[in-house]
Amino acid sequence: MRGGSFRRLLDERSRIAGTYLCVGLDPDLERLPADLPRSPDGVRAFMLRVIEATHDLAACYKPNLAFFEALGPEGWRVLADTLAAIPPDVPVIAAAKRGDVGNTARAYAHALFGVYGFTCATVSPYLGCDSVAPFLDHAGCSVLLLARTSNPSAAEFQNLEIGGMPLYLHVVTVSQAWEHADRIGYVAGATAPKELAAIREAAPDATLLVPGVGEQRGDADAVVRLGAAAGGGGLAVNVSRSILYAGRGGDFATRARDAARHYAGLLERRA
Amino acid sequence: MRGGSFRRLLDERSRIAGTYLCVGLDPDLERLPADLPRSPDGVRAFMLRVIEATHDLAACYKPNLAFFEALGPEGWRVLADTLAAIPPDVPVIAAAKRGDVGNTARAYAHALFGVYGFTCATVSPYLGCDSVAPFLDHAGCSVLLLARTSNPSAAEFQNLEIGGMPLYLHVVTVSQAWEHADRIGYVAGATAPKELAAIREAAPDATLLVPGVGEQRGDADAVVRLGAAAGGGGLAVNVSRSILYAGRGGDFATRARDAARHYAGLLERRA
Prior knowledge:
2 copies of one chain form a homodimer.
Chain A: H1 6-17, E1 21-25, H2 40-54, E2 60-63, H3 65-69, H4 73-85, E3 94-98, H5 102-115, E4 120-123, H6 133-136, E5 142-148, H7 155-158, E6 161-162, E7 165-166, H8 167-175, E8 184-188, H9 193-202, E9 208-210, H10 220-227, E10 235-239, H11 241-244, H12 252-266
Parallel strand pairs in A: 1-2, 1-10, 3-4, 4-5, 5-8, 8-9, 9-10
Antiparallel strand pairs in A: 6-7
C-alpha cells in the first residue's frame, strides 16, 4: 500500500505537480501503438513507457480494470507490473465501478486494496451503504461513488427527480451521513457542469474524480473552477485516450508526454 | 460460447433438471474445506469437486468474479478451469455487476463473453442504456440488470419513490423499452417478495435471477410462485454458501450434493 491516506497523498501530489491531471490507463488492444505486439506483453510495454513519459506531469493515475480483464488471466499480471512502475508518491485509483452485496464487496475490496495495493476505487452506489462499507474497512483507503457519470445516457436514471432532488444528489447527501464519510468521494462528469457544481456544493470537502475532459470534450476551465474544494485540493480530472493515443507511431511516448503536458496545463492547480 | 441463446438454454435445462436451482460459486478462501490448501490450487480443486457433485442437480451455475479476482492473477486461470468443468448443456451466469461507460463496457463484455465464454452477466443499471448495450451486441447473450437486490441496505436507493414508482421499477420499465429487451432480465432478491412480484408483473417474460434463498433466508416457495414466467420458465434461484459450505470435512462434496438436492427440491420446477 502507498504511504498515508489516499486523500492526503492526492492533495500533496497535485500541489507538487501543480495540476489536477489524472492520467487514465485504458489500454485498448485495438489502439496500441503500431510497433507494439497486440498482446499482454505489448500492453505491458505500452503502459511502462507511458508512465515513464508522464509520471512527473500527473497528479494521479487511474488504471481501468476492464481493459486488463479483457486480456485474460495474464492481464492481471500486466496490471500488477503497471502499478509497480508508478512512483510511490503518485496515488492510483482503481477504475473498477464495483458494487455488490456485503461478503462479495469484501472480496472485491480485498482484491483491489489487499492484493493489488490500490488505495482508492470507484464504486457504484446502487446497493446502498453495506455494499460500500467493506471498502472503507481498509484504513486510509477511499472510495469514489458514482454520482453523475459522463456518458451520454447518464441522466436516464441519475437525474430522475425524487422529492425535488435528482437521484445523483440523493446519492451524495445520503452517503455523506455514512460512517467514514471523510473517505467517500464522488465521480462527477465534466460533461455535466451544472451537476458537478451541485455535487461540490453538497459535499464541500469530498474528493471529486471528474472524467469527460479530452475525447468527451468537457470544459477544463469550468471543471477546475467548479470542482476544487476550498483550499484547492480534493480534485482529480481524468484524461485517458487523448493522452494514451496521442500518437501511434514510434514516437508515441513523446506524443503522450506532449499531450499530458497540454492537459496538465489546462488543469493547472494554482492554490 | 455455450450453444444457442442463454435464455433458451436456461429454460431447457431447468425443465430437464426439474428445478430452478442456480448454484452460486463463491469460493471464499477462509471457508474452504479443511483439507484443501488455502491457495488458487485449493480453490480449483474445490470448484471441480463441487461441480462434479452437483451438476446434474443444477439449472445453472453462477461464478462470483469477486472471489476469483481476490486470488490474484492465478484466480482467473482457476475461473477458466472452473468454467471448463461445467457441462456444456448447463448455462452459466457471470456474477459481475459491471456497469461502465460505453467503451469500457465494451471491454468488460469482450472479457466476459469473448474471453471467458459466459453467455450471461449481471450488470448495474446506474449508467443507463449505453452502459448495457455493448453486452447485448454479443448475439445470444443476456444481461441481468440489478433491479431490487437482496442485501440489507438495498432499499436505501432502490426503493426511493419517483413519481409514485420506486427506482427499481423504473429500471425495469425503462429498460424493457431498450433495444434487445428480449435479452434483458433482472436481479430480484428473495428477501423482498413484494418487489419480486412487482418486477415479474412489469416484465412478464423476462429472465429473473433471484438471490437470497439459503443463508439469507428468503422463502423458496414464494420465490417459485412469484418468480416463474407464464409457461414455467425464465427463473433461476441462486443458492451459494448453503451448498458450498454445507460441510468442511473430507465429505464436503457429498454434503454439497445433499444440500443441492435439498434446494433443488425446494425450488422444484413443475411446469
